[in-house]
Amino acid sequence: MKTIDGGVTAAKGFKASSCQAEIKYKDRTDMAFVYSELPCVCAGTFTSNVVKAACVMWDKKIVESGGPMQAVVINSGIANACTGKEGFDACEATARAAEGALGIPYTSVAVASTGVIGMQLPVDKLVAGVEKMSTTLDGSLLAGTEASKAIMTTDTVNKEIAVSFEIAGKTVTLGGMSKGSGMIHPNMCTMLAFLTTDIAIDKTLLQEAVSDVVKDTFNMITVDGDTSTNDTLLCMANGLAENEKITEKNEDYITFKNALMFVCEYLAKKMAADGEGASKLFEAKVIGAKDKQDARVLSRAIVGSNLSKAAIYGCDANFGRFLCAMGYSGADFDQNDVELYFESAAGRLKVFDKGTPIVFDEDKALEIMKEDTVTVFVNMNEGEAMATAWGCDLTYDYVKINADYRS
């Protein structure tokens, strides 16, 4: 497997476009269109929040129907959540606009929205945007990059990646884009993420791979402890790589799943690092846990604690905050087994050893914690399981951004 240039248009047969529809923003592109020349098998994971956006319910219906997906239309600025029947009607109007413009069934058109909850979408602008973008769909890498920019809200950078790998002599490509900066504490996958691949694969196996991979990628990031109403990950596979269709969990399936893991982890970490107001990527690695669930719970508790996040921002090697978060995580362990270290590009420093604090070099600790990526490394010494979670520091700017999000 190798990383290549591009995102959602890197795989064969995929095109993208974007436009400024002025859904809410007046100074940027705010709609994106991703289209496959052929109908795709699809997979998806969605928010566990009981309050689900209209677009989430629309996309779940497509994924669970077993039918094909051929396009996805995304808008930023307004989330289309808590919008009643009018919100669902906006989804259908968007899909039918794509049907009219491209001659594809509206039931194969997914929709996604991100932005302010509780506002109605301007349907006339949505439809006009779809009609405009349908005439500019393009398979270039630039078109994919511009699409990744159009779905941003408070993100400071766009997020995209593509990889290629070999399956039975055929070159397969997998690309993706995502957005997410705040309201990030997924219990399914993430905010918005879209994956495109030309692999030929059975729909059931595609869904199994996606559902499994998100557990250790998108499900392991947190910015602020808030699970969005709009969390959506969609994966479309059109089969144009012409590999022998994957219908069982063989070596080809494992190869694809490894590529999927790489792409999803990359996008997840990009989102964690770009958390609202963040200045650092905050990583927690837990090894030696009793089981995988404990490892996941412990690592997510560390990066999810506001006190831990504040300590990372302040470069304060206050290891007690991280141990405290582990203690209320719900995982059962003996603190007298735990070892805790701080790590970064500047080095590694042990600060807690099996129930006993260690006298450590505060200057070295400060040097380690000043880096752009800081890791809290924990050895539970109770088993073989491990997990990694990603988050960011908590800065003054987080409050500033969210104090006037609607304006």
TrEMBL record:
Substrate binds at T153, K179, T190, E276, N402, S407. Its EC number is 2.3.1.35, 2.3.1.1. Pathway: Amino-acid biosynthesis; L-arginine biosynthesis; N(2)-acetyl-L-ornithine from L-glutamate: step 1/4; Amino-acid biosynthesis; L-arginine biosynthesis; L-ornithine and N-acetyl-L-glutamate from L-glutamate and N(2)-acetyl-L-ornithine (cyclic): step 1/1. It is an enzyme of class 2 (transferase). The record marks T114, G115 as: Involved in the stabilization of negative charge on the oxyanion by the formation of the oxyanion hole. One of its GO terms (molecular function) is L-glutamate N-acetyltransferase activity. InterPro entries: Arg_biosynth_ArgJ, ArgJ-like_dom_sf, ArgJ_beta_C. Keywords: Acyltransferase, Amino-acid biosynthesis, Arginine biosynthesis, Autocatalytic cleavage, Cytoplasm, Multifunctional enzyme, Transferase. CDD domains: OAT. It comes from the Bacteria. Heterotetramer of two alpha and two beta chains. HAMAP family: ArgJ (MF_01106). This is Arginine biosynthesis bifunctional protein ArgJ.
